[in-house]
Amino acid sequence: MQCLESSRIRDAYLDGEIDALHSVELEDHLATCADCRMNLESQRVLKGLLQNASLRFSAPVGLQDEILRSLTLAPPESPVKEAIAADRRWLAVPAVRWRLAAAGLCAVLAGVFAMLLWSRGHAEQRLAEQVVDNHIRSMMANHLADVPSSDQHSVKPWFNGKLSFSPNVADLAAKGFPLAGGRLDYMDNQNVAALVYRRRAHIINVFIYPASGDTSPVLTQRRGYNLVHWDSGGMEYWAVSDLNASELQELVAMLRS
Amino acid sequence: MDHQEKIARFEALVLRHLDSAFNLARWFTHNDDDARDLVQEAALRAFKAFESFKGNDGKVWLLVIVRNLFYTSISRKPQEPAVFDEEVHGAGEPSANPEVLLFRDIESRLVRQAIEQLGPEFREVLVLRELEGLSYREIAAVTNSPLGTVMSRLARGREHLRQALASYMKGRTGQKGNRNAVSGK
Description:
The structure holds 2 protein chains of 2 kinds. Chain A is an alpha+beta fold. Chain A has helices at about 5-15, 20-30, 35-50, 65-75, 80-90, 95-140, 150-160, 245-255, and strands at about 180-185, 190-200, 200-210, 215-220, 225-230, 235-240. Chain A has a 6-stranded antiparallel beta sheet with strand order 1-2-3-6-5-4, with helices on both faces. By secondary structure, chain B is an all-alpha fold. Chain B folds into 2 domains: about 5-75, Orthogonal Bundle (Rna Polymerase Sigma Factor, Chain: A); about 120-185, Winged helix-like DNA-binding domain superfamily/Winged helix DNA-binding domain (Arc Repressor Mutant, subunit A), CATH 1.10.10.10. Chain B is about 70% helix and about 0% strand. Chain B has 10 helices and no strands. In chain B, helix 2 crosses helix 3, helix 2 (about 20-30) runs parallel beside helix 4 (about 60-75) and helix 9 packs across helix 10 (about 145-185).
């Protein structure tokens, strides 16, 4: 053991807070090191001086009785106590404190609720942006459909193995919305199914991916495109097109039926 | 719990450590009146919070409240310990060991003064250890510090104390020697 380590455990040794092993090691060192031995001696004498009872202050006579009296006279439950406390520190009155706490809690809850609404709205807007982006890209890149087919029985199976879900695919040609094909797309950090319908010269993209919830269709406009968003049957749907809103909603109604 | 019963339990578990609470408060505040106020307020708070007292160590619990109250109520922060001036106090010479002889007949008044002059962080752990007999673990709990910090503060506090007392005593005997020398002329 070196002197440095010896001085580090010296106090624990003096205070009896050392384990037997270290104690033996220190004693071995002390046997050979006069400096450390002397230092320990000084500290031992000093410790004796500190434990001199006259250094310790005792509570003044009567303090305990005074405290006990104040506890007896003013139990926290009693109205007397509340009145006294109200005089001095209104915050110390439990009722006020509860009311304040309740008010504070309400404010916090309202804040959290507002945040949730805001972040929901925010997420919705972000998704709508992605939907429009995807729609535009699908028309620009000459890559409207991975599986160009008007046959729902070849489009639906095409998604098998490419997605972790199977979207409903309906051919609505008889109702004026012929299916143009299916495509794999990406939004909201996941692969989604994109179904492509036509209405005269207009292209309609319908994005489908799994979600929980059940909400009625909501129509919005963004950058000149109409968007309809809804959830049903464990799926989230976004229909987007430059088609007019009423015809787009007509398609949505058929997809939901 | 009935109110009287609660008071009786409080007295038996917590209030019986009133001397310890007062001792710590007195070393904190440096005067009787402030110490008295501090302890009284701490006792009231302890009583209010007594329902939440789960442990069986009423002493540590009460001392924690005294300490927190001292540092928070008066918006006092645990100060950085005063820098110990090695030049003024002199580094302890480990040559012979006259210190043991010097310390033998030192008055407790001087020891008290030397403790008062320590940095508050050193004073606190020394008071808790030597005057209150708390274990390292209990001191760590009261001061809300890691065990290692408690140990190093104790060691440094003692070292400062030793050097201060040694240099004081040497100065005093030195003066005595000079006076004798003068009177001997």
